[in-house]
Amino acid sequence: MDIIDKSGAELRWNPYREKGLIIKNDLVISFLVGSSTIVVNSKVFTGLEFTYSEGQLFLNKESADLLYRLLKIDQEYFEIVKDENLFNIPVIIIDPGHGGRDSGAIGKLENIVVQEKEVVLNISKMVVEKLRNEYSHKKILMTRDEDYFLTLEQRVDLANNIELEAKQAVIYISVHANASLNKNAQGFEVWYLPKGYRRNVLDKNLDDNLKLTTIINALKEDEISLEGQELAGDILDGLNSTIGNMSSNRGLKEEIWFVVRKANMASVLIEVGFVTNELEGSRLAEKEYIKKISDGIFNGIVDFVDRYENGER
Ligand SMILES: [Zn+2]
What we know:
Blueprint: H1 2-6, E1 10-14, E2 19-24, E3 27-32, E4 37-40, E5 43-46, E6 50-53, E7 56-59, H2 61-71, H3 75-84, E8 88-96, E9 106-108, E10 113-115, H4 116-134, E11 139-142, H5 152-160, E12 168-178, E13 188-192, H6 208-243, E14 249-254, E15 265-274, H7 278-283, H8 287-309
Parallel strand pairs: 8-11, 8-12, 12-15, 13-14
Antiparallel strand pairs: 1-2, 2-3, 3-4, 4-5, 6-7, 9-10, 13-15
The chain binds zinc ion.
């Protein structure tokens, strides 16, 4: 592990699943202990095999040499790798939470009753309109654009049924509003899926090709969930710049809230504020305030998409 330290790279290690990411600037190497297959910026390579014992990661001499070369990769080579790996995001899905008989959180305030399902639909429509103006060549989808009920399954099916080619990805953004018994609670937060939210158990009876595919998919998933974290960060920053002076930034949170089967997808869930707080709840019913929220979400998405599509991660 001296190599990682000395090269200024960062190791993200999951001891339970014996998987890790080595990150240095734009370079992301995913590995799984006991497999010689690694994924370097979405490309598959072999020949670097980690072993793990007594709480430490080890590499044999050959693998150590390869890792050393990868981490010292010269700029020119890296530019080529980057070009080959440009991803694009042809589809963006905006998912306003709740709807119909499911009103979501309800804020019974002094002068008005604020319903989550209405607030999030209004915000989502504004975000979608802006995205459609910005990206005429992309499909901008909504899970619902009116007040009707959808199951979790129906929401996610829309995403999982999209056909993607290699090097295409989808982003999925769920919009919600918060509630608390504590009437003072207020602020916005963004949730992302934790790494390794989908468990792939390797079947010993699979043939080698299938095994390899399964390993690669598992590794790519880790990269995609890292991207979910980045998308969440961009949206949080976006919101902070438009409503940070009026509401509290409660930060990024990691949680499994639903399972999206599609691997090529970064998904986040935004809690835009508390309908149960007198001031914030009434603001969430005002067009001017939710326009600021939609600007923040939109700016965050654009930051992420542009960086992702230009290969500058
Ligand atoms: Zn909700």
